Amino acid sequence: IFFGYTQCPDVCPTTMVEMANAMKSLGKDAERVQVLFVTIDPERDTQELLAAYVPNFDTRFLALRGDAAQTAKVAQEFKVVYQKVAGKSSDSYTMDHTAASYIIDPEGRVRLFVQYGKKADEIAHDLRLLLNPG
Q1: What is the C-alpha separation between 38 and 76, in angstroms, rounded?
Q2: 18-36 burial, b if ≥16 CB within 10 A, otherwise e?
Q3: How far apart are CA 74 and CA 70, in angstroms?
Q4: Phi-psi region for residue 77, left (φ > 0), alpha (ψ -120 to 50) or beta?
Q5: Which entry of 7, 27, 38, 93 is 20 to 30 Å from 17 by CA?
Q6: Phi/psi zone of residue 79: left (φ > 0), alpha (ψ -120 to 50 degrees), beta?
Q7: Torsions phi, psi for 104 (to 5 deg)
Q8: Rounded Cα–Cα distance for residues 99 and 2 (Å)
């Protein structure tokens, strides 16, 4: 699970590329992994925009969107911090946000907190350990 937004200039697309590359590295094991992109900007990230944006990284990736209250609730549950940062006009804002991903096991337990900047091979290695214990 990664919390981000489509207008993000750097962290979000970089993270999504690393996740896509990790999936490629996993080979057949990638079939057992689901990447979820949760928008923290439901004001601009419409379902249509997310449906066009997220699959560009990997067609298996899914986007999730809620209203402002739902977004705040799920972000709080994951201890994700995000905040609108005003731009030159009301529609040119950016979003500061927690730049990390969460790896959840099949039983629904958070197992890893993946810091921004971790490379695809490292992510794939960690996923393999969770997918193939022992």
Answers
A1: 13
A2: bbbbbbebbeeebeebebe
A3: 6
A4: alpha
A5: 93
A6: left
A7: -115, 135
A8: 8
* Residues of the chain under the 50 pLDDT cut: none
3-state helix, strand, coil in the chain (%, to 5): 40, 20, 40
Query: Which of 106, 120, 101 has its CA nearest to residue 19?
Result: 120
Contacting residues for 130 by C-beta, under 8 A, at least 6 apart: 103, 105, 111, 112
Instruction: Determine the 3-state secondary structure of 77 from DSSP.
Output: helix
What would the pLDDT profile of 90-117 be if each residue is shown by its tens digit?
Answer: 778 999 999 999 999 888 899 999 999 9
Res 34: pLDDT:
97
Which runs of consecutive H residues, i.e. helices, occur in the chain? Answer: 11-26, 47-53, 68-77, 120-131
100 in Cβ contact with 12 (< 8 Å): no
Q: Which residue has the tokens 């096991």?
A: 105
Taking CA 41 as the corner, what is the angle to CA 40 and CA 45, rounded to the nearest 5 degrees? 120
